[in-house]
C-alpha cells in the first residue's frame, strides 16, 4: 500500500469519525439539558457520580482489549493469518463477557466498601450504581465489537453506534422519562434501556454485516493459544496506560479540592474541558491510523510509515493551530462567552493548559505509531513517568499558586510524555514528523502568535468576530503562499475529497438501509 493510498484511507475514514464526534457531543449537550430541566441538582449530581463509577468499572473490565484487538486483527490480516484473527475475535469476546459479569458482582460491593462511610454514607449513589452496573457487560461487548470492526478498517461503525444510535436512543428514553415525570431511578432505567437497545441494534448489524467475509468463516473453534496470550500481554500495559492518563485528568481536581476552595475547583473544571478540543482532530484520525499502519507492520511494508507519520502530523497540526491561537490569545473571550465573567480568573490557567495540550497535535502520531508497532510496554512506562511528574508538580505548586500551579503541572506532564514518545519513535523506528516544511510551519505559527499577542497588548485587537475571521483567512493564505503543502499532498487532498463525497452519499445510507431492512 502506497503513502497516497494509506493517507487517503486514513483521512477519509477519520473525517467520518470527526463528524460523528461533533454530532455525539451536540446530542450529549441536549440530553444533559433535558435531564437538568427535570432532575434537581442533587439528583443530577448523584447520577453523574454513578456514571463515573460505571465508566471506571467499564474501563477496567475492558482490559485494554479495545486497543489491543484492532491492532492485532490488522497485524494478522497483513500477515494473512486468518485463523489467528478468528481466535482473537472469539477469545476477546469471551474475556470481555467474563470481565463484565464479574464487574456486575464485584463493583457495587467494592464501591460500598470504599465510599459507604464517606461521601455516600446514605447509599444514594450506590442505589444508582446497582442499576447501571447491568449496562457494563453490554458496554464491554459493544466496545469490543467496535474494536473488531476497527481492525477490519470499518471504523465508521464507531460513529453509527457511539455517536448516533447510542446518544439518540439515550435522548429518546430520557425524554420519555422526563415526560412521564419519572424519579431519579426512572431516569437511570432509561439510561440502562438505551444501552440495551444500542447493543441489540449492534447485534443485528453484526449478523447482517459481519466483519469477516463468509468464505473466511470455515473453522470457528474456541481456543486460547499463544495468539490469545500475545493479545493479553500487549493489552495489559495499555490498560495501565489508559488508567494513568485518566488519573491525570482528575488528579488536579482532587488536589485543588484538598488545598484550595471549592470556587477554585469550579473555575478550573470549567476551563479544563476547553483544551480537549485541541486533541479532537488527532484522536479522530488516530482511530483510523492505528489499524491501517498495523496492517502495514503485519505485511512488513514499513517503508511508507515514516512518510505517513510526517504527512498526517503536519495536516493535523495545521488544522488544529487556528483554534489554539484563538484560545491562547483570547482566553477571556472564550471563558466569558461560555461561563460568564465570574470564571474569567481561569484565563491564565487556560493559556497554560492550551500550551500543554497543543503538543499532542504538534508531535502528532507518536503514540499511535508506537501502538501500531507493538511497543505497548514503553507506552505504559511513559504514562507512569508522566503521571508521577504531574503528581509531584501539583504537590509543589498548587499550595502556593492554586489553579495556575495545577495547570503548569498538567501542561509539563503532557509535554513530557509527548517528547518521550517522539524520541522513542525516532530512535527505535527512525520516524519523526519534523520535515523541512514542518519546521517552516513551526516558524510561521510562532511568529503569528507572537504578532497577535503584541497587537493585543498594544490594544490593537479587541476580540471582535471579524478579527477571528481575518486571522483564519490570513493564516491559510500564508500557509498556501509558503507552500507548506507540496504538489503530492495537494493531489492527495483532491483524491480525499472524492472519496469523502462517496462515503457521505453512498456508504452511510447503505448502512441504515441494512439496519432497517
From TrEMBL:
InterPro entries linked: Poly_Biosynth_Transport, Polysacc_synth
Pfam family for this entry, one: Polysacc_synt
Subcellular location: Cell membrane
Keywords: Cell membrane, Membrane, Transmembrane, Transmembrane helix
Membrane topology qualifier: Multi-pass membrane protein
Domain of life, per lineage: Archaea
Signal peptide from the UniProt entry: none
One GO location term (cellular component): plasma membrane
Coiled coil segments of this chain: none
Statement: the UniProt record of this protein carries the keyword Transmembrane helix: yes
Transmembrane segments: 7-27, 47-67, 88-111, 131-149, 161-180, 186-207, 231-251, 271-290, 311-330, 350-371, 378-398, 404-426, 438-458, 464-482
Main location group: membrane
Database matches in PANTHER family: POLYSACCHARIDE BIOSYNTHESIS PROTEIN (PTHR30250:SF27), PST FAMILY PREDICTED COLANIC ACID TRANSPORTER (PTHR30250)
UniProt protein name: Polysaccharide biosynthesis protein
Organism listed in the record: Methanosarcina spelaei
Lineage: Archaea, Methanobacteriati, Methanobacteriota, Stenosarchaea group, Methanomicrobia
